[in-house]
Amino acid sequence: MSVTIKSEREIELMRQAGKILAKVHEELEKEVKPGISTFHLDRLGEELIRSFGCEPSFKNYQGYPASICISVNEEVVHGIPSKERILREGDIVSLDAGVLYKGYHSDAARTHGVGSISEEARLLIERTRQSFFEGMKYAVAGKHLHEISRAIGDYAQSFGYGVVTDLCGHGIGSHLHEEPEIPNTRQFRRGIKLRQGMTLAVEPMINAGTGEVLWMDDDWTVVTEDMSLSAHYENTIVITEGRPEILTLTERELTEGIWQ
Ligand code: MF3
Ligand code: CO
């Protein structure tokens, strides 16, 4: 399958899927506090997703056993929710979720602090989010895909952070993962030319230490090799002739203006 251009009808469905996912994240964030299990967050997330008439995109995807990926501290992505994993004050937790609405997916991730967190952790979360928006400056029809990658990677690396290169963003639509793959660091080639109507999930995964990662024995959970903290920020976007349309922001984020 090659990179597809979505019709206005398809984009409208993805807008709906994106709005719903933004609400799910908004609700989940309120539940992030010391003492709560990652299992509880997954349960709540799945209930919310279904209450909007959607399916959780991740459930059973390649055998993934839950609805939300919940990754704590040195866990980068794909953490499996568990009753035994209790969030504690000072942790950081990445919530990654996808919803399927009328045949179309949206995908977004956020990292939150649990109670009060260190300045180091706060900055990592904030700069990971900003690296996404640095990438957005190049997410314009006529530019090339890897201009986004370079902007993300250069920004994150300017703080000495390690950018994860073993995992990438991706095209998205009627499938959760479509072409193209979207790296988060400089590439030797410029990548495909961006066109209006391409729908992409851009998702920097940034580590406080090395960018190298390992897979745990559950075959899902990805952790930093040096056990340093990791943050994740992801949105589903549509390429236009101007600024990209970011489908997975909340009403508040859109009106208050999250763009820097
Ligand atoms: N946002 C992640 C990704 O795009 C979620 C997929 S995890 C899985 O890779 F559980 F669905 F496999
Ligand atoms: Co994704």
Name of the CATH architecture: Alpha-Beta Complex
Low-pLDDT ranges: none
Average the pLDDT over all residues and give the rounded result: 97
Report the structural category. Answer: alpha+beta
Neighbour order of strands in the largest sheet: 8-7-9-14-15
| Ligands, deduplicated | 2-amino-4-trifluoromethylsulfanyl-butyric acid, cobalt (II) ion
SSE topology string = HHEEEEEHHEEEEEEEEEEH
Number of helices: 5
Keywords for this entry:
5-stranded antiparallel sheet, globular, alpha+beta, binds 2-amino-4-trifluoromethylsulfanyl-butyric acid, 4-stranded antiparallel sheet, 260 residues, binds cobalt (II) ion, Creatine Amidinohydrolase
General description of the model:
The chain has about 260 residues and is an alpha+beta fold. About 30% of the residues lie in helices and about 25% in strands. The protein has one domain (about 10-255): Alpha-Beta Complex (Creatine Amidinohydrolase), CATH 3.90.230. The chain has 5 helices and 15 strands. Strands 8-7-9-14-15 form a 5-stranded antiparallel beta sheet. Strands 1, 2, 4 and 5 form a 4-stranded antiparallel beta sheet that branches. A 3-stranded antiparallel beta sheet has the order 3-12-11, with no helix packed on it. Helix 1 packs antiparallel against helix 2 (about 40-50) and helix 3 packs antiparallel against helix 4 (about 145-155). The radius of gyration is 17 Å and the shape is globular. 2-amino-4-trifluoromethylsulfanyl-butyric acid binds next to strand 5.
Topology:
Blueprint: H1 8-31, H2 38-51, E1 55-56, E2 69-72, E3 75-77, E4 92-101, E5 104-113, H3 119-136, H4 145-157, E6 162-163, E7 169-171, E8 178-182, E9 199-202, E10 205-207, E11 213-215, E12 222-224, E13 230-232, E14 235-238, E15 245-246, H5 251-256
Antiparallel strand pairs: 1-4, 2-4, 3-12, 4-5, 6-10, 7-8, 7-9, 9-14, 10-13, 11-12, 14-15
Helix pairs in contact: 1-2, 3-4
This protein binds 2-amino-4-trifluoromethylsulfanyl-butyric acid and cobalt (II) ion (CO).
